[in-house]
Amino acid sequence: MPPTVNDAVFRIARWRAEFADRTIESHFNRHQLRHTRSQVRLALLFCAAFYVAFTITDVLALGFGREALILLAGRVVVAVSALVSCAFTYWYPHSIRRIWLGASITEILGMATFALVVLFRPHDTPWHAMSISIMALVVYLYIPNRLLYALAIGVISTVVFVALVVWLDRLTGPELLTMSMLLLLSNGFGCMAAHRYALIRREEFRVHAVLKNLSERDALTGCHNRRYLQQELLNMELSRARRFKLSLAVVICDIDHFKAVNDTHGHAAGDAVLVTFANLLRSLTRDGVDSVIRYGGEEFLIVLPETDLDGAVHLAERMRGALIGAGTEVAPGRVVGVTASFGVTAVNFAHVEQRFAQELLVDQADRLLYTAKSSGRNNVQALQFHGSPGAGERRKAA
Ligand SMILES: Nc1nc2c(ncn2[C@@H]2O[C@H](COP(=O)(O)OP(=O)(O)OP(=O)(O)O)[C@@H](O)[C@H]2O)c(=O)[nH]1
């Protein structure tokens, strides 16, 4: 489920171009995972194919001897590593860490093998400089990885390459300087582009999360709204309960005589009472498991996964009792107290196999709420749901 949105949560640690909050960063990575997987597959397979194809240039430069064979072996190791990294994306489709690990290992092996190419083919140093520039850009921009890892791999391999060239002593001073400056340029621009790309992706994610939050939450109470319930939550929880043969409970509650609160104390006071009620419902439910939805004006719906009818009735009773003891100070020294009525239903998929429209479950809880209203208010009405509304034994809990 997406986290609640506020600006502080989306602060970006700019130098590493990641969300400062680890939970948000991991939500972001999960959100990107599908895209990351396909990008890693395409980039690594493409690189592996080219890396092996360059064997032709080794053979042309060195002949088909021992050194060419060593380079071929190195190139094949890199290609196999790329294939295994691609396989990681199928074996562990939800693990971004394994994807990064696979990508990093392949990049390190690729750079190490390239050092061998430089050693065995010192005459081609200017071409190698061009190759390592391209490889650095690929590391920064095309193979998905954390910016920090890409930067470390890009910089270390470039430094090692320059050190090798100095040691081989094939270039004049000005040539060496020109090459080093070009490598600095490709690393600098590669890193800047990767940094900018990482920031843009995160900004897109932030906007997406803010809009999603606005479209799914009620502005007054901060609870989820009916749209979220109908379009996402209920379907998701029903399919999960169905798949694992679990029980799922729904509670609908409504403040009694709420119109009188508005009429007597004003709309703002009514709003404050609604906020108190919503906070109380949230405080009594399990964080990150249960969901409190503002279902209508002064009506709230609570979805309780892995909860049977008895558990849900017990919770509704606690809510009813807690509300009686919780007043709202609507003006200095003026406290408004309210009661609420509850309709509770639960479906147990260990016993109910058939598919049914999600509205039927909510309809039944709604009907029970109105029974509670017509039975004098401030009480809980409960009924097990058996796949069709109305079937089952009704219980008046209080
Ligand atoms: N302050 C405030 N009032 C609201 C809001 N949404 C709905 N209402 C009011 O809630 C009241 C609901 O009144 P009714 O449906 O008659 O229900 P009730 O007075 O609670 O009576 P029972 O439910 O039968 O106990 C109406 O006066 C609506 O205007 C809101 O966001 N803020």
Automatic annotation (TrEMBL):
Residues 246-385 form the GGDEF domain. SMART domains: GGDEF. Keywords: Membrane, Transmembrane, Transmembrane helix. CDD domains: GGDEF. This is diguanylate cyclase. Pfam families: GGDEF. It comes from Pseudoduganella buxea. InterPro entries: Diguanylate_Cyclase, GGDEF_dom, Nucleotide_cyclase, Rev_trsase/Diguanyl_cyclase. Its EC number is 2.7.7.65. The keyword Transmembrane applies. It is an enzyme of class 2 (transferase). It catalyses: 2 GTP = 3',3'-c-di-GMP + 2 diphosphate. The chain crosses the membrane at residues 42-64, 70-92, 99-120, 126-143, 148-168, 180-199. The lineage of its organism: Bacteria, Pseudomonadati, Pseudomonadota, Betaproteobacteria, Burkholderiales.
